[in-house]
Every structure is written in structure tokens, then in C-alpha cells.
């Protein structure tokens, strides 16, 4: 591994342009460009796929891809990813995705990415710039600007894309949207989505201990574009979601699943404002529980439904919306993981996590029978993307959650963290979606954010020592919207 690290630090910027083939276990893997270029299809054609971030959800995504060639695997933690390496013993293994893309450029058709949130945009952007199709785990990106960037990259490069919010391909998500758009609950007037997450520690302060970095982990590569900090096992391999520098909290983890049926059904687009509240939020990690309200403007009416302005409320940490009228006592809203709900002028519709099991209150045993107008996904979410990768761009049916849809949607999801982190301004924040700006923060407005909150108990009486950092709110908002990366890291 030490040799790999040294080689990584000495990467040249040249691209390997020779057509190559990779022989493994006596089987010749022929890259698709040899057969006819990106978009070429043939009955027996297969994709050469690389995985970036393969220790957790990445392994599940690769398992769900059948009949394709997994030719390369990349992960900064070779212990956490060992099971995946064992799954594909003939795949070439890497620590640094940049090295993998350079060395295997012409041998890779498509990339599956399941790294921590803060490296999504860089890994996907680099892959797309080299003409690779991209399957990217949710949330699509760590910041709003990164979402806008990847949306543009997908349009520019013409590669096939898919965000890993697998519920978007479900039948329930489509029924939820079709019932609403057919007027089964009247005109929608408010919406809600909620989750039991986090199911990992949040509201944490930065650890003070500095244990040794495991020999199987390249800590500098894990940090990637984030500011340098000492290693601690509280950050990786799993709890990175809690930390602002690496993850997007419960909202980023589950918002792309739970808000999706509502966003799809109501054609929401950009909100005009948002505001948030939460349990204590600090400079390091997302709060234990929070609520965000998005304000969406009136949209174009459909044949059977008007789309008036409405509020869309998000809840995490086990918080829930008010139980709707007519809800059977004792009946759970959604399921144990969360759910979504739209209240209309004629009724209320609810679904479970991933858009599953939609029903209209009072019509549980008499669901609407409406025309299926949204195309169905016959394959798995991952294989729907594989199908799209193999189709020529000119005639391609894009994957269900391709970046043209997922990019604008993800902007809405991750902007909720702006509401949480800037709640100290104590006002609704007006949003200019086209220009990605909060328009009502003054040049000199400030917010105080907790840096540490410790206490001691003296004779049964807790004595608190809460420390704060005061930051310029306008500058902070701009940094949250468009990150400044650590030196040596930039979008392709």
C-alpha cells in the first residue's frame, strides 16, 4: 500500500490513449469503444464497469448489476472494502480514483460511485469528463453548486446517468404521483416528509484524541477536498454522514428517498424561500433532530389539478407532522423508517419509505384506478441505468433518476441544510434558484454557532460551559452553496 501512496503522489496528468485490453483468468475483456464507441449496442454487448467507494452501498450496487464486467475497484479503505475485492478477484484495485481513471481510461465504460458525500462531485465530474457513464449514490452532491455542475456535465457530455435513490424506480412512487395528478385528492395544498434518521451519532463535537491511522486506510485521500484534520474512527468508515465536512446528515441521507415522490408528483422546481429549526447545531456535525420548511410558488396547472403555492415540511430525528384528519388511531404514518404525505382539498395521500405502499386516507381498500402515464421501470434501478448506458444518445430512454431530474431535485434536498445552519438569523431565507443565492442576508449579518458545549455537575447542579463561534452569515452561506476545496482538489 505504501508503494501505491507514493505512486499516487507522482501521478502525471497525461491520459493513456492507447486502445488496450485486459486479460483476467484467461478471459479477454474488450472495451466497448473497440466495438463501436460510447452508445454502441449489440445483443451480446456488456459494459466494463469500475466501482469507486465499494465498501458499503457500493458493494450492494455492484451486486445488483448483473451480466457486466467489473474491471476495476477503488476505495481509500482496503479493509472496509475487502469483501468487495473478494467478490471480484479479477478486478484491478486502486486507492486513488484519479490514478484508476488515467491508467484504465479506455478499459472503462461506466462508473458506479458510492463514496462519502463530499467526494461525489469530484469523482463523478472526473468520470463524466472522460466520457464515462455514471451511477452516483444519493445525495447526488454535498452542495447546491455541485448539483448544478453535474447536471450541466451530464447534458454536455451526453453520458447516461442515474442517482442512487432506488425508490424513484418503484411502482409506488409512480402511483403516488399519478393519483395526485389525476385529481384523486383535489388540489395539493401542503406536503410533508419525515425520517427516523439519524440512526448514527449526530450533534457531535470534534474528537480530541488522535489515534494512529490504520495501515489499510489512506486518510489523506479520504479527506479529499475537505480541510485537513487528524484521523479519528468517528469519521469513517460509516459515521461520516454526521459531519458537515463529509456528509449531509439525516436530510442528505434520506431526503432523496422520502421527498422524491412529492417532488415528482407536484412538479416542484425551485423553492422561493426556506427556513429551519433544530436541536442544538454546532460547527462540526448535523443536529440530532431538525425541521425544514420549503416554500414553493404556484406552478402550471395540470388537466385535472391546480398546482397552487404550498409549503413542504421536512422532519428528521423522529419528529413527525401532525396526524391528518381521518387517520385511523394507532396506525403508523408511512413505516418505521419514515414516509411522505400530501394534503389536498379533497383528501390526503401517504406513502412509506422509497415511495412504497401509497394509499389515500379513507380509501385504503378502494385505491384509485387511473391510467398509468408515467413509464414503468421493469429492471432494477441499477440495471435501468445499465440499459441506458448501452443505448445510443440520440435514441436513448434515460434512466429514471438521471441527472436532468436528480440534479435540480438534489439542490432542494441539500439546501435544507442551509436552513439548519443559518437558523440563527431567525428569519425565512429568500432563495434565488436561478442564481443559487439567498437574497435577504445583509453584508454584516452574523450568526453564533456552538463550537463546544460541556458541563460538570457540582453538588447536583450542572454548570455549563458553552463556547460559540461568530461567523459572517453571508460569507458562510456562499461557502455552503459553493465549497472552497482544499489545495490540490478541484472539479474537472
TrEMBL record:
Domain Gfo/Idh/MocA-like oxidoreductase N-terminal: 48-164
Spans through the membrane: none
GO-annotated molecular function: nucleotide binding
Residue ranges occupied by any Gfo/Idh/MocA-like oxidoreductase bacterial type C-terminal domain in the UniProt entry: 209-267
InterPro entries hit by this protein: Gfo/Idh/MocA-like_OxRdtase_N (IPR000683), Gfo/Idh/MocA_oxidrdct_glycsds (IPR050463), Gfo/Idh/MocA_OxRdtase_bact_C (IPR043906), NAD(P)-bd_dom_sf (IPR036291)
Top-level division of the source organism's lineage: Bacteria
Gene3D superfamilies: Dihydrodipicolinate Reductase, domain 2, NAD(P)-binding Rossmann-like Domain
Pfam families, A to Z: GFO_IDH_MocA, GFO_IDH_MocA_C2
UniProt name for this protein: Gfo/Idh/MocA family oxidoreductase
Amino acid at each position: 500500500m505504501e508503494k501505491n501512496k507514493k505512486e499516487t503522489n507522482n501521478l502525471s496528468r497525461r491520459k493513456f490513449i492507447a486502445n488496450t485490453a485486459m486479460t483476467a483468468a484467461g478471459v479477454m475483456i474488450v472495451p466497448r469503444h473497440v466495438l463501436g464507441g460510447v452508445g454502441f449496442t449489440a445483443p451480446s454487448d456488456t459494459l466494463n464497469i469500475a466501482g469507486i467507494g465499494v465498501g458499503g452501498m457500493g458493494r450492494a450496487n455492484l451486486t445488483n448489476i448483473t451480466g457486466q464486467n467489473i474491471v476495476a475497484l477503488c476505495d481509500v479503505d482496503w479493509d472496509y472494502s475487502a469483501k468487495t475485492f473478494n467478490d471480484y478477484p479479477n478486478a484491478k484495485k486502486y486507492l486513488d480514483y484519479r490514478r484508476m481513471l488515467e491508467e484504465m481510461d479506455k478499459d472503462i465504460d461506466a462508473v458506479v460511485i458510492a463514496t462519502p458525500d463530499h467526494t461525489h462531485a469530484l469523482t463523478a465530474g472526473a468520470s463524466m469528463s472522460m466520457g464515462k457513464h455514471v451511477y452516483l449514490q444519493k445525495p447526488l452532491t454535498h452542495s447546491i453548486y455541485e448539483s448544478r455542475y453535474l447536471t450541466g456535465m451530464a447534458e454536455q457530455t451526453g453520458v447516461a446517468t442515474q442517482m442512487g435513490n432506488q425508490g424513484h424506480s418503484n411502482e409506488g412512487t409512480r402511483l403516488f404521483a399519478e393519483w395526485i395528478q389525476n385529481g384523486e385528492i383535489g388540489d395539493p395544498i401542503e406536503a410533508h416528509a419525515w425520517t427516523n434518521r439519524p440512526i448514527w451519532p449526530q450533534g457531535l463535537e470534534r474528537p480530541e484524541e488522535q489515534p494512529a491511522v490504520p495501515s489499510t486506510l489512506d486518510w489523506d485521500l479520504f479527506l479529499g477536498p475537505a480541510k485537513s484534520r487528524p484521523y479519528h474512527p468517528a469519521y469513517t468508515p460509516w459515521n461520516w454522514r454526521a459531519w458537515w465536512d463529509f456528509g449531509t446528515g439525516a436530510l442528505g441521507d434520506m431526503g432523496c428517498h422520502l421527498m422524491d415522490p412529492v417532488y415528482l408528483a407536484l412538479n416542484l422546481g425551485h423553492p422561493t424561500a426556506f427556513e429551519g429549526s433544530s436541536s442544538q447545531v454546532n460547527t462540526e456535525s448535523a443536529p440530532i433532530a431538525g425541521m425544514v420548511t420549503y416554500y414553493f410558488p404556484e406552478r402550471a396547472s395540470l388537466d385535472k389539478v391546480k398546482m397552487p403555492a404550498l409549503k413542504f415540511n421536512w422532519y428528521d430525528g423522529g419528529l413527525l407532522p401532525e396526524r391528518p384528519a381521518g387517520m385511523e388511531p394507532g396506525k403508523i404514518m408511512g413505516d418505521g423508517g419514515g414516509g411522505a404525505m400530501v394534503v389536498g382539498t379533497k383528501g390526503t395521500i401517504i406513502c412509506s419509505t422509497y415511495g412504497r405502499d401509497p394509499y389515500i386516507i379513507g380509501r385504503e381498500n378502494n385505491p384509485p384506478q387511473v391510467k398509468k402515464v408515467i413509464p414503468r421501470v421493469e429492471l432494477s434501478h441499477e440495471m435501468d441505468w445499465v440499459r441506458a448506458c448501452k443505448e445510443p444518445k440520440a435514441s436513448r430512454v434515460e434512466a429514471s433518476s438521471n441527472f436532468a431530474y436528480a440534479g435540480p431535485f438534489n439542490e432542494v434536498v441539500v439546501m435544507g441544510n442551509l436552513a439548519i445552519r443559518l437558523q440563527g438569523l431567525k428569519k425565512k431565507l429568500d432563495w434565488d434558484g436561478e442564481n443559487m443565492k439567498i437574497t435577504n442576508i445583509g453584508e454584516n449579518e452574523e450568526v453564533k454557532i456552538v463550537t463546544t458545549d460541556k458541563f460538570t455537575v457540582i453538588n447536583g447542579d450542572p454548570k455549563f460551559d458553552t463556547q460559540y463561534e461568530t461567523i459572517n452569515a453571508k460569507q458562510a452561506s456562499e461557502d455552503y452553496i459553493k465549497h472552497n476545496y482544499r489545495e490540490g482538489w478541484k472539479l474537472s
